[in-house]
Amino acid sequence: MKVLVLGGTGYIGSHAVEELARRGHQVSVFARGHTRPQLPENVSLVKGDRHNREDLARASSRGFDAVIDINAYAREQTQAAINAFDGAVSRFVHLSTMAVCRKESFLPVDEDDPLVTDPAAGYGYDKAECERALRWAHTKTGFPFVSVRPTGVYGPRDRKSRENYYLRRIMAGDPVIVPDSGAVPIFAVYVGDVVAVLANALDAEGVAGAAYNLSQPELVSVNKHISNIARLAGEQADVAHVPARLLERLGFNLLQFPYYSRERLIVVDTRAARRDLGYQPTPYARSLAETIGYLLEHDPESQPSLEETIPPIMPRSRERALIDRYRREIAELEDRLTNDWLNEALPEV
Question: Is 130 helix (H, G, I), strand (E, B) or coil?
Answer without folding.
Answer: helix
